[in-house]
Specification:
Helix content is 87%, strand content 0%.
């Protein structure tokens, strides 16, 4: 009887070790999946943040146009144009700082299920916005 109890105890101990090992594999797998999802969420948040900064840059362009419209009759006119140009310069700085930060963040992360916007697309958009902002500045100075 004593031997039977020892064999039963050893059997239960072996089963519990096997079960614990399987649970740790499952927990590790679930943890790895959650980490991958977190990286994907961060990639998408990075793109939303970039978009938000581009919107902030466009707000600066709007302020520049508004200043020119409000102070267009201001004498001397170059003062209103200069202040508007400062806002255009700030907009361009925002575009490129947002691009730099978005690319830096994206390079630190790895894609899993989400497809990240390539860094060259951040650059293309920043170049296009810069050209449009410089064009706006030229038009403001010609008015």
């Amino acid at each position: 009887m004593h031997i039977l109890l020892k064999i039963t105890a050893l059997f239960i101990q072996a089963i519990s070790r096997h079960t614990m090992h399987m649970n740790s594999d499952t927990n590790a797998s679930e943890s790895e999946t959650r980490t991958k999802w977190a990286e994907d969420r961060t990639i998408l948040a990075n793109e939303r943040t970039y978009s938000s900064w581009m919107g902030t840059g466009l707000a600066c362009v709007g302020v520049a146009i508004g200043l020119k419209a409000v102070f267009g009759a201001f004498d001397p006119t170059w003062v209103a144009k200069l202040v508007a140009s400062l806002f255009l310069g700030i907009a361009i700085m925002i575009y490129w700082m947002a691009r730099r930060q978005a690319c830096k963040t994206l390079n630190r992360l790895s894609e899993n299920d989400a497809e990240a916007l390539p860094t060259r697309d951040f650059t293309k958009l920043s170049v296009a916005m810069t050209i449009a902002t410089v064009g706006t500045g030229i038009v403001l100075w010609l008015l």
